[in-house]
Design goal:
With 898 residues, this protein is α/β, with parallel strands linked by helices. 36% of the residues lie in helices and 23% in strands. Helix 11 packs parallel to helix 12, helix 16 packs parallel to helix 17 and helix 19 runs antiparallel to helix 20. Pfam families: Acetyltransf_1, ATP-grasp_5, CoA_binding_2, Succ_CoA_lig.
Length: 898
């Protein structure tokens, strides 16, 4: 794919998918794109701005000026054997990288690579970023190796290659070092790229949430205006850095007794964060000023963008393009704002009238109006937050970015997400799977079909998308809930209590009815109730203390639910103190969670709180729920997360018999014809490279060919229609199978050709009998590539008895896929049949996943039917569809979403 670029006299086509916004190591944005002849002047300015030392290290000698002929050579490339990428900040080039093929040196698959970074931008990690994107372009063009000549006195350049994750070899030749390395993606290289992405994205969010100074652009003296509210909230929260009101020409000289400035560039000191509350039409001048001032991040609360429709979306995309071109990140537009409750920051850059106190829970949502309700609800429950981000239209900063930050943030123990959609679903799954290994992530979806696009699609596919969302989130270890109340219920037990070591639960209460309700809910939620102690309605407080202490000391108990209804004319505060005393005096309380339905209170009651600075509840506080069912369900979700975290990390699986590079090259060769469904022969070829063999068949067009194919394959055989929609149907509905002689084959061929109208049919060798199953991969706009598994046939299609997981799969994912459908017991040997070879099905699923993960041009896969017997699996029919790589693919060089 290419797009024309004006050069002043003619247009030059370059691969547009190579253009990308990427993050430097300091969290700032740089824009990368291929060079064009129109960039000659910018390239000359860039070269002239380099120090003498930098030019010497790049060109191995003094090169104060680039000769005109060299400028033409560097800016005129073929985007195949010679490629150059420029890194831009605004209108200035800040780095350049290039490769040139070495075919003339007898190395057709090698290219020489070099790059140079402006002195003022060295140390920002731009070298590895350029190298990563150059390697991606080179791989597309068939190169497998990079070589470089480096001066011996320039060890930093060699370190760039090594630190980028490549396995380099070096040869010394006097004053230079010759470096070579393979550029094919490996697990080690991908791991390094992901780590670099994680660090840079976390740093960009740290710039947002840990600013040293804040400007409020659009600050007003009118208390009813948004800009005034933002400034007032910043001041009320006690932000520890300077706050600068910016209110435009001719406005008041101060706002809330703080000196105001006409423009950001008038502020004498540095500004890290700008909170913008000006009309959309005035955003251009604001961006220019923020760029000139060196602002790192903008929070735009202004509306008037994508939420208004297509015209607003155009303006929103232009806003993002300008912000990133200026090297900044953007939260919003139409955002509520951000909060950081760390005492050394004390940032409330939101429109919310009430925010929770400090805590160890991070919260991300999109909707501004909902964000206000969320913050108020959390405050009412005394659930402390570490940080909060409301991303509004999520034009730039997304939940993925904030997850990267929370993964590295020692002040956040629990992550809460209010999801309306996934920005990049594959990236979300990759990040969430890593985060949930250390911190629980709880997500709420915003209603039925929320992950589905609007309109008819929501009506048709909303319910299915909800089911898939639940499975995909669970695959990444994310706990999904359905309501805000449930979200905070689960957050409270995760934030303040330890994880249970097992499902064994004791219930203690002074109401047999409420205790029974708790027990029923606990069992239905997956807990094992091992003890139910009824203390009676008039129990003395010491009995409550003793019962709690005894349950915590019992090695056969993993968690505890206490339900308490206060007796008449009794000081209930004494009972809450007794419960807390029992918990604090028991060493087992550090490993056994306690939840309560105590005094019908919701949240963290004062008497059940372990107060921290300012009286805010801290670890060890006991959450209370108005109903016992909610207490039991929250505890069960904690156990579910503990089970997830106890699963061993998925180790890379070596699948023998895979020739990934052959398959990749073959598919990309087929892509020269554009996206399409592959023929049966092409499909079989691609699958074969991944160790997936379709039961041997021949495509035939005449009676003579059918008879010859049957003899070659060996009787018995089947005759099938070649069109994908006929293959499965005829097999399942009793097509002519088990044909044992040439006459039967000829008869079946003639009848089937007349029935289907297909000129080409298939004669296929018979496979061992067994239950038929199907594996499909479809490209979902909500979740990326999704694998489904279920039994084959119209009945199971009608019942939609399928399990779903996102690509890539782990072995555990594959086993869950096989076990999850309701009809899976038929594979276990029901009705006296031999059980299917589950390991063979798992292996097949892993190969399909590896195929789609490695070759994103494969957009659809269908293996149906697959006969699964005790002797293995036999794929009778398959289809593949190829197309352009999705814009949300999580492959290749790391970049910001568009």
């Amino acid at each position: 794919m290419t797009e024309p670029v004006s050069t002043g006299s003619a247009a030059v086509d370059y691969p547009r998918h190579w253009a990308a916004d990427a993050l430097a190591s300091d969290g700032g944005v740089v824009h990368l794109r291929p060079i064009t002849p129109a960039d000659a002047d910018a390239l000359v300015r860039f070269h002239e701005g380099l120090s003498e030392r930098t030019r010497y290290l790049r060109y191995f000698g003094p090169t104060p000026k680039l000769p005109p002929r060299e400028v033409v050579r560097m800016t005129t490339v073929d985007y195949r054997d010679r490629v150059a990428l420029l890194a831009w900040l605004g209108d200035e080039v800040i780095a350049m990288g290039l490769y040139e093929g070495l075919a003339q040196s007898g190395k057709p698959h090698s290219a020489e690579v070099a790059f140079v970074v402006a002195d003022g931008h060295q140390g920002r990690g731009l070298g590895p970023v350029l190298l990563e994107h150059l390697a991606g372009a080179a791989a597309e063009n068939g190169f497998t190796k990079f070589e470089a000549e480096v001066l011996s006195e320039n060890p930093n350049m060699v370190a760039v290659f090594r630190d980028a994750g490549y396995q380099i070899s070096r040869a010394f030749d006097g004053s230079t070092v010759h470096v070579e390395f393979e550029i094919d993606p490996t697990d080690a290289l991908t791991s390094v790229r992901n780590a670099r992405e994680r660090a840079s994205e976390a740093r960009s969010i740290a710039n947002l949430l840990r600013p040293q100074s804040v400007a409020v652009i659009g600050a007003s003296t009118d208390p009813k205006k948004v800009g005034h509210v933002l400034l007032a909230n910043l001041i009320a929260a006690g932000f520890t850095g300077p706050v600068y009101p910016v209110n435009g020409p001719g406005q008041a000289r101060s706002v809330r007794a703080i000196r105001a400035y006409e423009r950001v560039i008038d502020i004498p000191d540095p500004v890290d964060l700008a909170v913008v509350a000006v009309p959309a039409a005035g955003m251009g001048e604001v961006l220019d000023d923020c760029m000139a001032k060196g602002v790192k991040t903008l929070v735009v609360v202004s509306a008037g963008f994508g939420e208004l429709g297509d015209d607003g979306l155009v303006a929103e995309r232009a806003l993002v393009e300008q912000v990133r071109a200026h090297g900044m990140r953007l939260v919003g537009p139409n955002a509520l704002g951000v909060v950081n409750n760390a005492p050394e920051i004390a940032l409330n850059a939101t429109l919310a009238p009430r925010i929770p106190g400090p805590g160890r829970v991070g919260f991300f949502c999109q909707s501004g109006a909902l964000g206000i309700a969320i913050l108020d609800h959390a405050a009412g429950r005394r659930l402390g937050l570490s940080t909060f981000v409301s991303a509004g239209n999520r034009a730039d900063v997304s939940g993925n970015d904030v997850l990267q930050y929370w993964d590295t943030d020692d002040a956040t123990d629990v992550v809460l997400l209010y999801l309306e959609s996934f920005g990049n679903p594959r990236k979300f799954g990759r990040i969430a799977r890593r985060v949930t290994r250390n911190k629980p992530v709880v997500a709420i979806k915003s209603g039925r079909g929320a992950m589905t696009r609007v309109g008819e699609q929501k009506e048709r596919f909303g319910a299915l998308d909800d089911r898939i969302a639940k499975m995909v989130l669970a695959q990444a270890g994310v706990l999904q809930v359905d309501t805000l109340a449930e979200l905070f219920d689960v957050a409270a037990v995760l934030a303040y209590q330890p994880l249970p070591a097992g499902p064994r639960t004791a219930i203690i209460g002074n109401s047999s009815v409420i205790a029974s309700l708790a027990a029923h809910s606990a069992r239905s939620s997956g807990l094992d109730v091992v003890s139910l102690v009824d203390l009676g309605p008039a129990t003395p407080q010491q009995e409550l203390t003793d019962a709690v202490s005894h349950a915590l000391a019992d090695p056969g108990v993993d968690s505890l639910i206490v339900v308490f209804v206060p007796p008449v004319a009794v000081d209930t505060a004494e009972y809450s103190r007794s419960l807390m005393a029992a918990a604090e005096d028991s060493p087992e309380s550090a490993t056994k969670p306690i939840v309560t339905t105590f005094l019908a209170v919701e949240g963290i009651p004062i008497g059940l709180s372990v107060p921290g600075p300012g009286g805010v509840p801290t670890r060890g506080s006991i959450p209370s729920y108005p109903e016992p069912e909610r207490a039991a369900h929250a505890l069960a979700m904690s156990w579910r997360y503990a089970q997830w975290r106890s699963r061993p990390d998925a180790a890379p699986v070596e699948l023998p018999g895979i020739a990934a590079e052959h398959a990749r090259s073959y598919v990309r060769e087929l892509m020269s014809d554009g996206g399409r469904e592959l023929t049966a022969t092409e499909t079989a070829e691609v699958l074969h490279w991944y160790g997936i063999d379709i039961v041997e068949f021949r495509e035939v067009s005449t009676l003579h060919e059918a008879s010859a194919a049957a003899r070659e394959l060996g009787f018995p055989v089947a005759v099938k229609a070649g069109a994908s929609e006929w293959i499965g149907r005829l097999d399942r509905e009793g097509a002519r199978l088990d044909l044992s002689d040439a006459t039967a084959v000829i008869t079946a061929f003639a009848e089937l050709q007349a029935l289907t109208g297909e000129s080409t049919l298939q004669v296929q060798r018979m496979a061992p009998k067994g239950p038929g199953v199907c594996i499909q991969v479809t490209e979902s706009r909500s979740f990326g590539p999704v694998v489904s598994f279920g039994l084959s046939g119209r009945l199971f299609e009608t019942l939609d008895d399928r399990s779903y997981r996102a690509v890539p799969l782990t072995v555990d994912d594959a086993r869950d896929l096989v076990a999850e459908p309701r009809s899976a017991e038929l594979l276990a040997g029901a009705a006296g049949e031999q059980p299917a070879d589950i390991d063979a099905l798992v292996d097949l699923l892993m190969r399909v996943s590896a195929l789609v993960d490695a070759i994103p041009e494969i957009r659809e896969v269908g293996l149906d039917p697959i006969l699964s017997s005790a002797d293995g699996t036999a794929v009778l029919a398959a289809r593949l569809a190829i197309g352009p790589v999705p814009t949300l693919a999580d492959t290749g060089p790391r970049r910001l979403g568009s």
